[in-house]
Amino acid sequence: MLKANRLSIYAIGKIKKKWIREGINQYKKRMPDLIINESKSFNIDNIRVNNIIICLTEEGKSFSSTELTSLLLNFKNKKINFLIGDADGIPSDIKDKSHLLLSLSPLTFPHELARLILVEQIYRVISISNGSPYHRA
To answer: Which residues does the record give as S-adenosyl-L-methionine binding sites?
Structure first.
């Protein structure tokens, strides 16, 4: 079973669009333990060495929601950190240190919208792992 307290999002920049911020806040109410860190740049040294690092990038691998659930469950009790870059993406040196490059879709999304989609998918993954009826395949 996945819990939000094992998952963190590290993102470059703050959400400027009110409707996206409101959407993220709706999911945060359902997952108050989910940590979302917004900053001007990534400091990979602040992420513990034994944590799993997943970079969201267009060249990453795509998964269905159930496949992503299985993948995250395989990380057992490790903390999982999702990294989302700004409009320029994630620097290659950080991608090189990640455990997985993840693509949300073959479509390209603005980074703010990608953050909302990721938060929804995290909620969905937690719901799937808990047997909640939220996800209907």
So the answer is: 56, 85, 104-109
**Interatomic CA distance for residues 30 and 22, integer angstroms:** 13
Does 7 belong to an annotated binding site? Answer: no
Query: What homologous superfamily does CATH list for 4-130?
Result: SPOUT methyltransferase, trefoil knot domain (3.40.1280.10)
Whether this model's pTM surpasses 0.85: yes
Q: Interior CA angle at 43 toward 42 and 49, to 5°?
A: 120
Is 32 annotated as ligand-binding?
no
Q: Is 108 annotated as a binding residue?
A: yes
- Check the annotation: does 107 bind a ligand: yes
Determine whether the annotation assigns residue 106 to a binding site.
Answer: yes
